[in-house]
UniProtKB/TrEMBL annotation:
Keyword terms, alphabetized: Signal
Keyword Metal-binding: no
Entry's Gene Ontology molecular function annotations: tRNA-specific adenosine-34 deaminase activity
InterPro entries: CMP_dCMP_dom, Cytidine_deaminase-like
Short name of one Pfam family: dCMP_cyt_deam_1
Protein name in the entry: CMP/dCMP-type deaminase domain-containing protein
Signal sequence interval, chain numbering: 1-20
Domain called CMP/dCMP-type deaminase: residue spans: 37-178
PROSITE patterns linked to this entry: CYT_DCMP_DEAMINASES_2 (PS51747)
KW Signal (keyword) present: yes
Transmembrane parts of this sequence: none
Organism ancestry: Eukaryota, Fungi, Dikarya, Ascomycota, Pezizomycotina
GO biological process, alphabetically ordered: tRNA wobble adenosine to inosine editing
């Protein structure tokens, strides 16, 4: 029951923030998307880690999936995925959400792809999309989500949990960023702590040598990092 009620509670908190503005109630309706669908895409954000980083247990285990639920049946349509690429590229701004937005833009504007949008059409398309990320966005990424104009933003592990478990963070929540962005023409709906019981383990081992590694990984020889398990270790 906990993992069903907590996201709704945070969502209602955001409703109270924006209902006092001029945003019509029709902008707030997302109850037609079941929790099972939310869980599917949050798990997809977790799966992106192995697909794009080459490991199910990268140190910065921040994964993102961008989905179109607008005018689609069933689960929705995946547009792109992204993972934190700071270490791979040396770009300190390339967090999972920024990487996903960059990937989506390339896919939407690919002249040989399935969308073939112009730059302006691609920019406008984000208002119909939902961004799922397995950890709450830093203020840089939360701001990028608002500037992109996403229809929805759904996260798993909270910044509070990250800080409590040893992660260095800028202590500004997504809700605070959203509260400060009401002048923007777009309106993004926020839902937090979705499937946190499954996303939290991706961020609990890095600064706690006693915490088990994610599935498919095991502690390195000195116990300070997790790495992909060998075949013998998986037996």
């Amino acid at each position: 029951m906990h993992m069903f009620t907590l996201p709704i509670a945070i969502l209602l908190c955001f409703f109270q923030t924006i209902l006092s503005s001029t945003i019509p109630d029709s902008m707030l309706i997302t109850r037609d998307i079941p929790f099972s669908t939310r869980a599917y895409w949050m798990r997809r954000a977790n799966e992106a880690l192995g697909e794009l980083s080459g490991s199910p247990c990268p140190f910065a285990a921040f994964g993102t999936a961008v989905v179109n639920h607008t005018g689609t049946d069933g689960l929705g349509d995946q547009i792109c995925i992204g993972v934190n690429q700071n270490r791979q590229t040396g770009n300190p701004a390339l967090h999972g959400e920024i990487a996903a937005i960059t990937n989506c833009t390339a896919i939407l504007t690919d002249p040989h792809g399935r969308f073939r949008l112009t730059a302006s059409e691609a920019q406008a398309a984000f208002v119909d999309l939902t961004l799922y990320t397995n950890a709450e966005s830093c203020p840089m990424c939360a701001s990028a989500i608002r500037w992109a104009g996403f229809k929805e933003y759904v996260y798993g592990t909270s910044i509070h949990t990250l800080v409590r478990k040893g992660w260095s963070q800028i202590h500004i929540s997504s809700l605070e960023v959203f509260q400060a962005s009401l002048d923007l023409s777009s309106h993004t709906l926020l839902m937090g702590d979705v499937l946190a019981n499954e996303t939290d383990p991706y961020f609990l081992w890095q600064f706690d040598p006693a915490y088990p590694c994610p599935d498919g990984c095991s502690r390195s020889g000195n116990g300070t990092t997790c790495r992909v398990s060998t075949r013998d270790e998986l037996k």
